[in-house]
Amino acid sequence: MENLQNQKSNEELVPIPKKYMLTFREAASYFNIGIKNMRRLCESNEGDFSICWGNKYLICRQRLEEYLNQLMIRERNQNDVGLEENHGVN
């Protein structure tokens, strides 16, 4: 019983930016994304950043960061193209 309590307290001591794998709640808090949206991202797993372990998902923090950065770049590029088309900029 004491080992289980020590394990829980050790998990809480590791700061989220230093963790390799995150839970839904940790990832949602770290990336400022709602838990439901985080669950949807993990279920679709387009960026190969999450694994299903039993009945819960674990999220690889570094891979999710890379995936979100790619989404931001793609969105920015689409917005730039839309602005050029709307304003006739070449």
Question: What's the structural blueprint in terms of helices and strands?
Answer:
Layout: H1 2-13, E1 21-22, H2 24-31, H3 35-44, E2 50-53, E3 56-60, H4 61-87
Antiparallel strand pairs: 1-3, 2-3
Helix pairs in contact: 2-3
Which key features would you list for this structure?
90 residues; alpha+beta; 3 strands; 63% helix
How would you describe the overall organization of this protein?
With 90 residues, this protein is α+β, with helices and mostly antiparallel strands. It has four helices and three strands, in the order H-E-H-H-E-E-H. A three-stranded antiparallel beta sheet has the order 1-3-2. Strand 2 and strand 3 form a beta hairpin. Helix 2 (24-31) packs across helix 3 (35-44). The longest helix is centred in the C-terminal third of the chain and has 27 residues, at 61-87. The termini are far apart. The mean pLDDT is 82.
Helix content: 55-70%
Q: Outline, from the CA principal axes?
A: elongated
Q: Which series of helices and strands comes N to C? A: HEHHEEH
Give a short account of the largest sheet. 3 strands, antiparallel
Poorly predicted spans: none
Mean pLDDT: 82
Number of strands: 3
Q: What structural class do the secondary elements suggest?
A: alpha+beta
Order of adjacent strands in the largest pleated sheet: 1-3-2
Q: How many angstroms does the end-to-end distance come to? A: 68 Å
How much of the residues is beta strand, in percent? 5-15%
Number of helices: 4
* Rg result: 18 Å
